[in-house]
């Protein structure tokens, strides 16, 4: 193979000794000391940026940490490491900077980002994570930031719905999944959603539920931490993500993570009562819920993905389409499934769970076969299941092996409808529908049932728009 064309090569001083630096057209930066190539960086992967400090050029790089090496307060796959050298003249310095800048600019990395920091997410450490872990890396990469702390629930959604987002190359959420979902919904409710929704969205894990970023990083073997997430955003690689439209009449919610009804929704939402327990609250409340297990009447209907046609029973169903209303935002995918066979599963149900990406939280591999943009949702249904088996299933979720249980139906669907009913043992008590970690609908006599939710505890349907959203992602 012919050697790559040299873009710039210069005699320089490295640590006071004569050496050379060379940048080649295939994006390799090389330092030559004592006549031998000594250090070597792939600019796309290893170089964040550079600064001029008087007569020196400081290259800001990252190196992969070796396994087992201590990773500081917040952990991470990369450490920052600078390489400093001194060109022999002002001209040589300017020429080198110009060439390296030109190469970095050709990589299509983001230059200006809108950053939301949720000071109340997770362990309330988002500000610290941002200041200590995220900002220094973005500064190294010379990315301009407009930082906005979220002041209340739905603040991020309100802002992206109304502000000028065209000046940004992406939106970053230093938060859990909640703020990401707000940003998606805010963008899709804009009249210019078709243009602005192309903006890549990035997530830096700083919440309780960090399922999306865990799914993105774990897919390539990276740790779920601010360091690895920030480097992925700086490198500017993106991937597309399915967006599910949950509709009830003309009311819509755009989901990127999951929908839960039954056991999982009850644990997720009702365990709020035990927030003071910290992360143990979910496990504690799960055991309580399994001991006094609820079963729900109802029906789920779905259009199976190819290969999953044997699940459930055939039924006749048509997606209900409301007459178009004069609203300006996104209205969901234009689906035409009339000719395809719908299937149904009738209750009673212990749990119904729809998932868009593999991880529901950092320690929950809910849908191990889920793909980011296959146009399908993974459906996990539990009906009759002995309590002991259910307890064991809950512990298996961390490894994703629960889906192999004979008590679990695990399949992929293209469209879905839920007809939620009341508790089998208490016909005047209903359930909660949870979408992306928030209450979508509360039935009669449920936890905090006096609070108004977006939808009523009634039939709803879900359609998927393949790859509609764009996320900053590590290269895969
Ligand atoms: N300043 C604030 N005060 C209260 N809530 C806020 C504030 N800013 C954002 N929120 C809300 O906090 C919720 C949780 O956000 P986030 O995505 O950071 O964390 P999470 O992991 O999803 O949830 P949590 O950590 O609360 O369990 C979102 O619904 C968001 O609207």
From TrEMBL:
Major localization listed first in the record, in broad terms: membrane
Q: Which UniProt keywords apply?
A: ATP-binding, Kinase, Membrane, Nucleotide-binding, Transferase
Q: Where does the chain cross the membrane?
A: none
Give its localization: Vacuole membrane
Enzyme Commission number:
2.7.1.91
Query: Which GO BP terms sit in this record?
Result: cellular response to abscisic acid stimulus; sphingolipid metabolic process
Q: What GO terms are given for molecular function?
A: ATP binding; sphingosine kinase activity
Q: Record's Pfam families?
A: DAGK_cat, YegS_C
Protein name in UniProt: sphingosine kinase
The scientific name of the source species is Brassica campestris (Field mustard)
Q: What is the lineage of its organism?
A: Eukaryota, Viridiplantae, Streptophyta, Embryophyta, Tracheophyta
